[in-house]
Design goal:
The chain is built from 16 helices and 13 strands. It is an alpha/beta fold and about 350 residues long. Helix 1 links the parallel strand 1 and strand 2.
Length: about 350
């Protein structure tokens, strides 16, 4: 088979690493990096650490409005898909790169395969929700991480081509957790002493960063936290902290974004994670680190139902109360929602079976 893979952002690099490794011994993969995440800390380091092959093409689209960014990807993707004539166009997750790849392929009548299909937050103000819904309805094959995702699709009338594969981020975490625990030196670099209690934090979504009130309340919560906080800041978040004149206190370290191995190590050792990231909610769950999600909803609802994740308003006192609760006692059970780390194998098998049927 010839696979045309579209990636462009940190979560997609993580998901693509195990799947590319499973595909390439038997099939031909043409890898396109849209350049949605483009600086070293958000892109290159992931390719190096995760062993992802160098992209065949980097579109270098960079930042911009959602419309400009998506259009800037679709035009060259259309040309490349026509040139490569792949058997499958493979897209991941819910970013603008995902939607651009799916739209370009579907309009050219090339079949789309969507990794991490069926997720729903039911918040249409989030661009990610629009991207994932549209991509699911354009896809021929839909690879779902959980039964919940399958159920979401069924409610929308999407049942053909749907497969439960487990979550491919489990594959990535299992491949790298030992390196995170035994090789990463990030905690020493940050001055975290062995056994020291600390919080990890990441904030990047526009609802939290583009609002002065929301980001001010989040920083107030971190500043008042009862233990040290390590805050790897997305470039946009750091910019808005400066724009709003927010000042972290001494126990809050605002640092540059971390590579995958170091971020795993940081979350693994934390008393709790505060985040608005979808992928990090799940990584915290896999590492059995309590999570506080500073959002009104989450697509990873299983983590909330199990007690390992709690939703929290962008408000100082709510954050402090959530920290106190999360760092108190851990839930007694840790259900296996996301599979056993063999999602990549199942995805390749499903692609092969569908290809054989179509041929």
């Amino acid at each position: 088979m010839r696979i045309f893979s579209v990636i462009g952002a940190r979560p997609q690099f993580i998901k693509a690493a195990p799947l590319s490794a499973a595909l390439r011994p038997y099939h031909d993969e043409f890898l396109v990096h849209t350049g949605q995440h483009y600086d070293n800390a958000m892109s290159d380091v992931f390719f190096r650490q995760l062993g992802i092959p160098a992209p065949d093409v980097n579109l270098g689209v960079g930042s911009g409005s959602h419309a400009a960014q998506t259009a800037g990807m679709m035009i060259p993707l259309e040309r490349l898909i026509q040139e490569q004539k792949p058997d499958w166009v493979l897209v991941y997750g819910d970013t603008n790169s995902t939607l651009a790849g799916a739209l370009a392929a579907a309009k050219l009548h090339f079949p789309v395969a969507h990794v991490e299909a069926g997720l729903r937050s039911y918040n249409r103000t989030m661009p990610e929700e629009i991207n994932r819904v549209l991509t699911d309805h354009l896809s021929t094959l839909l690879f779902c991480p959980t039964q919940t995702a399958v159920d979401h699709l069924a409610k929308e009338g999407v049942t053909a081509g749907v497969t439960i594969t487990g979550d491919i981020m489990v594959d990535a975490a299992l491949r790298n957790v030992e390196a995170a625990r035994h090789e990463s030196t990030i905690l020493q670099q940050l001055g975290i002493q062995p056994g020291q209690t600390y919080l990890a934090a990441t904030i990047h979504r526009p609802a939290n960063t583009d609002s002065r009130e929301a980001l001010s309340e989040i920083m107030a919560g971190l500043n008042a936290a009862p233990m040290p906080v390590v805050f790897p800041a997305h470039p946009r978040t750091r910019k808005m902290i400066d724009v709003y004149g927010l000042v972290p206190v001494d126990h809050v370290q605002v640092v540059n974004p971390l590579g995958y191995i170091d971020m795993l190590a940081l979350v693994d050792g934390a008393a709790a994670l505060l985040t608005d990231s979808g992928g990090l909610q799940k990584e915290a769950y896999l590492l059995e680190t309590p999570c506080i999600t500073i959002r009104q909803e989450t697509e990873w609802i299983e983590t909330v139902h199990s007690g390992w994740n709690r939703l929290c308003d962008a408000e100082r006192d709510s954050i402090l109360q959530a920290v106190e609760t999360a760092c108190g006692t851990h839930p007694p059970e840790h259900p296996d929602f996301y599979g056993n780390g063999r999602a990549a194998e199942r995805i390749v098998t499903a692609l092969e079976a569908a290809y054989q049927l179509s041929g």
